[in-house]
UniProtKB/TrEMBL annotation:
Transmembrane segments: 12-34, 46-65, 72-93, 135-152, 158-181, 213-231
Higher taxonomy: Bacteria, Pseudomonadati, Pseudomonadota, Alphaproteobacteria, Rhodobacterales
Annotated protein name in UniProt: Branched-chain amino acid transporter AzlC
Domain of life: Bacteria
Family: Belongs to the AzlC family.
GO biological process: L-valine transmembrane transport
PANTHER family: INNER MEMBRANE PROTEIN YGAZ (PTHR34979)
Keywords from the UniProt entry: Cell membrane, Membrane, Transmembrane, Transmembrane helix, Transport
A GO cellular component annotation in the UniProt record: plasma membrane
Amino acid sequence: MTQFTARKAFWRGYIDCAPFVLIVIPYSMLFGVVARDAGLDLFQTMSMTVLVIAGAAQFTALALLQDNAPVFIALLTSLAVNLRMAMYSAALVPHIGHARFSLRALMAYLMVDQAFAVCVKTYEERPDMPPAAKVAYYFGCMMLICPFWYGFSFVGAYVGQAIPASLSLDFALPICFIALTGPLLRSVPHYVAALVSGVSILLFSWVPWNLGIMVAATLAMISGAQTELYLRRRAEKEAA
């Protein structure tokens, strides 16, 4: 990827994100089906898809509302699930934070897990990418994923019960996040945070309204940060 022009960077991002379409298609279809089963009509389902554009948070909100949880709890838990987007944003600031405000606002709206993972990996591997090329690459990644999310959410919502249960579309959810998380685990703090989150979500699965997710996420962030701090202090002490 030498001598990246903005146009080449856009199409490179488009191509790099292409494999994730195989996961986004069943994932988005599953949301459409689940939303209709939860009582949302076609307009409500697509409004949620377009406005929220965050699969995990959308599934969480639907599950809580089906369990008759208060709307405040559904919103709070969905917000907690989506707090990862704030961390994504912080990670992307050194690379695309120079863009004008209107572009950054559009980037924030379009941000999805798959495209973020691809972008960060490429930016880290190619620190020589020009600023304009980094912005173009970001949009190339996002512009592939988002139309498929919209389109197949509509398909799932429209055909609804016509999709056989034997297809088990819910396989896409864990596979998607395993594929995203695996390549990003590169250090001891990463592994510690992942381990703590996995164990915590099992230990706190009894907490009502899925609030165990918030507990697990908090413990994972604290443990990862403390591990990184410990390793840094030990390295400084050894250097001294």
